[in-house]
Amino acid sequence: MSEIKLKKNVHSRNQEFADQNRQQFQRAGLFTVNILGSPGAGKTSLVEQTVQQLSPLPRILVIEGDVETEYDADRIRKLGVEAIQIQTHGACHLDAIMIREYIGEKNLSDFQLLFIENVGNLICPAGFDLGEDTRVVVGSTTEGDDKPIKYPEMYYTANACVINKIDLIPHINFNLEDFKTRARQANEDLLFLPLSCTSGEGMAQWLDWLKQGMAGCQG
Amino acid sequence: MHELALAQNIMNLINEEQTRHNFTKVETIKLSAGGFCGIDPHALSFAFEIVRAGSCAAEAELDLQIDPIKITCRQCGFSASVEHGVSICPQCKSSEIMWDGDSHFDIVSLEVE
């Protein structure tokens, strides 16, 4: 018997594609946001509100990841924004290879902002780099303020955390400070953007944060 | 169930190594993961059972070491390594604790024949 030392990342194949994607995004001057969160947190609503409220409106491309249906891409297309739907037919996350398949031939210099809305899931998508510039986890008040410690990898790997549905706080048992404290246990550098896609409260900070990201990507 | 994708990746890496080193059988696969890797060892074993069928790793043992998470309390300074994250300081009961870990997942080595 002999031992072969490898020390190889199990995600290495995904990482190769993620690196290629990232290079392509950077060449195009594109700001790419990977949006993650549980089903029903309001990821698509956030994208809808963003494309309606960003001013001046940049050229936006949206990739929607779902297990089945074109529903989400259709919601975005209705707003006059180009959307690609990836149906995973069972897979619980998007990976960099899927993204490569859909955008490999596309001229991305036509766009300034790319949203990749991942499959709704607080576990699996966290381990898969897609080549994004930044990773946003969308939590929501109706999920409860304990979610960050129940799903720490998701919060550990995120750069920013949108806390959606803050308009419902008076009606439900949710403590915003407890949510933040628990998220900081896994990631003390996490940026919090509490907002409501319904009432519009807090949207201005989210939009400013996006604009800063876009400004940083245009050479 | 992202463990199925990870199990497939492990199998692909073993196949690459087999082409390079020409072994016939894998005895042990040593894996190392960070405390934030988000991997369920049981789900990984289950998925690996499926993808390894008929391969050189059909009888291999998966030896997965997941690093502990280090917790430090901002209030009382208590510090310890724990297998699973805790949300409240075991000493002063404060929730102002920090978890320290990472999310790496590596195949460290293969024992082969």
Shape of chain B: elongated
Which two chains touch over the largest interface? A-B, 38 and 35 residues
User: Going by CATH, what is the homologous superfamily of chain A?
Assistant: P-loop containing nucleotide triphosphate hydrolases
Total strands of chain B: the figure is: 6
Mean pLDDT of chain B: 93
Q: Note the main sheet of chain A.
A: 7 strands, parallel
Shape of chain A: globular
Q: What is the strand arrangement across the widest sheet of chain A?
A: 4-3-5-2-6-7-8
Distance between the termini of chain A: 55 Å
* Cα-to-Cα separation, first versus last residue of chain B: 31 Å
Instruction: Supply Rg of chain B.
Output: 18 Å
**Rg over C-alpha atoms of chain A, rounded to the nearest angstrom:** 17 Å
List low-pLDDT spans of chain A.
none
Q: Report strand % of chain A.
A: 15-25%
Low-confidence runs of chain B (pLDDT<50, min 5 residues)? none
Count of runs of 4 or more consecutive helical residues of chain B = 2
Structure description:
The complex is a heterodimer of chains A (219) and B (113). Chain A is α/β, with parallel strands linked by helices and 219 residues long. Chain A is 36% helix and 22% strand. Chain A has helices at residues 12-27, 43-53, 71-77, 96-103, 147-150, 152-157, 176-186, 203-217; strands at residues 2-9, 31-36, 60-66, 82-87, 113-117, 134-140, 160-164, 191-194. Chain A has a seven-stranded parallel β-sheet, sandwiched between helices. Chain B has 113 residues and is of the alpha+beta class. Chain B has a single domain (3-112), classed as hypothetical protein PF0899 fold, CATH 3.30.2320. The chains are: A alpha/beta (219), B alpha+beta (113). The interface between A and B is large, with 38 and 35 residues. β1 (2-9) of chain A pairs antiparallel with β6 (105-112) of chain B, so a sheet runs across the interface.
